[in-house]
Write a structure and sequence with these properties.
Immunoglobulin-like; 3 domains; six-stranded mixed sheet
């Protein structure tokens, strides 16, 4: 007798939520020779809900700690199958900051063969929950050159569209400039991504590009690197109180220089530098950023 198929589709494995939050658990279920009569949902082996019609889902209030979620599908012949487990964690305390979790670019029809540029931005808080009512401002590049903004919905995402449209093969890139919220601070250093695509201007190296600048002046130079650990592109956020000579050097932990970018003058303000040096080996690396006569050192882990 064939058994039904079942798998949990949401939330994703490793997801984190605030303790007390309502979590939607969804599953796909089917039966090759009959019909699915119900799907039971479990947390750490305890039944937490049942759905008898597709699409199969329940809402569950998560507590503090880590939970193994599973689902069990039962068909019209009484045969049952249990899905693989998905691990989720409930964290106590209130969220204090937010960051950009994802940026997806594309196009939307403008009619008559023209298309708008489109960027879908997802914002989450430091507990991993989607942030609603966050205002995201960013700049399109590629075919379009516009700064646009929008507000996230309940799922933490916002679709930002260009005002202009174009025909033909389009290149749509987008950089987040700022995210504001009534209660949460924007922590750009925790962004999973800040910009998509290529950079707008080089700073004397094929692997380092200045992809964002603003004229907001900090009190002193501040250097941040993200994401860390890294797999792919490293971003350096450089805040300068005045026009400065900036030199970037990449070392391995033996002190061997891998690449050095000659000192380049950057204006006062905030800059995000995209470091595209591809490293073959996983391990610990050191970025040294010299701002005039002051050195700033950042260790990061490269995952290959």
């Amino acid at each position: 007798m064939p058994f039904p198929f079942v798998s949990i589709t949401s939330p994703s494995n490793g997801a984190t939520f605030s303790s007390g939050a309502s979590v939607t658990i969804a599953a796909n279920a089917s039966d090759p020779d009959g019909s699915v009569t119900k799907v039971d949902f479990y947390a750490n082996g305890t039944l937490i809900g049942t759905d008898t019609s597709s699409p199969y889902s329940i809402n569950w209030t998560i507590g503090s700690g880590t939970y193994a979620l599973t689902s069990k599908a039962t068909d019209n012949a009484g045969a049952a199958t249990t899905s693989g487990s998905v691990s989720v964690t409930g964290q106590s305390g209130s969220a204090s900051s937010m960051s950009v979790a994802a940026i997806v670019t594309g196009t939307a029809s403008a009619g008559a063969g023209s298309k708008y540029g489109l960027a879908t931005v997802t914002v989450k808080d430091n507990l991993g929950n989607p942030v609603s009512n966050a205002t995201v401002s960013g700049t399109f590049s590629g075919t379009f050159s516009e700064t646009r903004s929008g507000t996230t919905g309940a799922n933490g995402t916002v679709n930002i569209m260009t005002a202009a449209s174009a025909k033909g093969a389009l290149t749509v890139d987008f950089c987040v400039n700022s995210v504001t919220h009534s209660t949460l601070a924007y922590n750009a250093s925790q962004n999973s991504i800040t910009c998509t695509g290529a950079a707008s201007s080089n700073i004397s190296s094929s692997s380092v590009q200045n992809i964002e600048s603003s004229t907001s002046l900090p009190d002193a130079a501040v250097i941040q690197a993200y994401p860390n650990p890294l797999r792919g592109t490293l971003y350096l956020k450089v805040n300068l109180p005045e026009i400065s000579q900036v030199q970037i050097t990449l070392y391995d932990m033996r002190g061997v220089t891998i690449e050095q970018v000659p000192a380049t003058a950057l204006p006062a303000g905030s800059h995000i530098l995209k470091f595209d040096k591809q490293l073959k080996d996983s391990g610990l690396y050191l970025i040294k950023v010299r701002v005039n006569d002051q050195d700033y050192q950042i260790r990061y882990v490269n995952l290959n």
